[in-house]
From TrEMBL:
InterPro entries: 6-hairpin_glycosidase_sf, 6hp_glycosidase-like_sf, Glyco_hydro_9, Glyco_hydro_9_His_AS
Catalyzed chemical reaction(s): Endohydrolysis of (1->4)-beta-D-glucosidic linkages in cellulose, lichenin and cereal beta-D-glucans
Record has Iron as a keyword: no
Domain Glycoside hydrolase family: 9-170
UniProt GO BP: cellulose catabolic process
Name listed for the protein in its UniProt record: Endoglucanase
Family assignment from sequence similarity: Belongs to the glycosyl hydrolase 9 (cellulase E) family.
Assigned EC number: 3.2.1.4
Active site: H97
Keywords: Carbohydrate metabolism, Cellulose degradation, Glycosidase, Hydrolase, Polysaccharide degradation
Record's keyword annotation contains tRNA-binding: no
Length: 176
C-alpha cells in the first residue's frame, strides 16, 4: 500500500520501497518507518485519522500496513527475493562492505595484515569470512537492484543509523 500526500516529498522505487536517496537509502526507509509507526500509534490512541488531501484519509491501520510493507520488502518480499538483513532467510548479502566481516578472524589468520594483504581480501569475490548477522545494508537502487559486492559502500555497508530504527519497528510487529 502506498500512502500519498497532496505535497509529495518522497517517492517509491518500482516495487514499493520508499526511496529518498541512492546513498544508503535504507536509512530513510527504517527511520521513516519508525516515525510513521509511532505516529500511527498516536493516531490510534487519539481516535483520529490523517487527512492526506486529494480526498484520501489514512487511518492508523493504513499507516501500520504501509510500515509492514516496508519491513516485508526489507526482509525479502521484493523483486530480488533477497533479505537485506544479513543472515535472515536463505538469500541475503554475503559480501557486505564491513572490515570486521570481510577479514578473517584472528584465529583463522593470527598474523597481522601487512601492506596490501587486506586489500587482496577486499578485492576478492569470495563471500565475507564472518557473517555479521542482523546487519542491515544500504539496500537496493531505485530500480530495485542490489549487487552483492563489498566494493559498493553506498548499497552494501551496514550502519547503526540504518539498523537502529528498525529495532523498534520489529519489536512492534513481534508484539502485534
Amino acid at each position: 500500500m502506498k500512502i500519498y500526500s497532496s505535497t509529495p516529498s518522497h517517492m517509491f522505487a518500482h516495487r514499493g520501497l520508499l526511496f529518498r536517496d541512492d546513498d544508503a537509502n535504507m536509512q530513510h526507509v527504517t527511520g521513516i518507518s519508525f516515525l510513521v509507526l509511532t505516529y500511527a500509534k498516536s493516531l490510534a490512541n487519539s481516535g483520529k485519522q490523517l487527512d492526506c488531501g486529494n480526498n484520501f484519509v489514512a487511518t492508523s491501520a493504513d499507516l501500520i500496513k504501509f510500515v509492514k510493507s516496508q519491513v516485508d520488502y526489507i526482509l525479502g518480499t521484493n523483486p530480488m527475493k533477497m533479505s537485506y538483513m544479513v543472515g535472515y532467510g536463505d538469500n541475503y548479502p554475503k559480501s557486505i562492505h564491513h572490515r570486521g566481516s570481510s577479514l578473517p578472524s584472528v584465529h583463522a589468520h593470527p598474523d597481522s595484515f601487512n601492506g596490501g594483504d587486506g586489500w587482496q581480501i577486499f578485492h576478492s569475490s569470495a563471500p565475507n569470512a564472518n557473517q555479521l548477522t542482523g546487519a542491515l545494508v544500504g539496500g537496493p537502487n531505485f530500480d530495485d537492484v542490489y549487487i552483492d559486492t563489498r566494493f559498493d559502500s553506498t548499497h552494501g555497508e551496514p550502519t547503526t543509523y540504518i539498523n537502529a530504527p528498525l529495532v523498534g519497528v520489529l519489536a512492534y510487529f513481534t508484539q502485534h
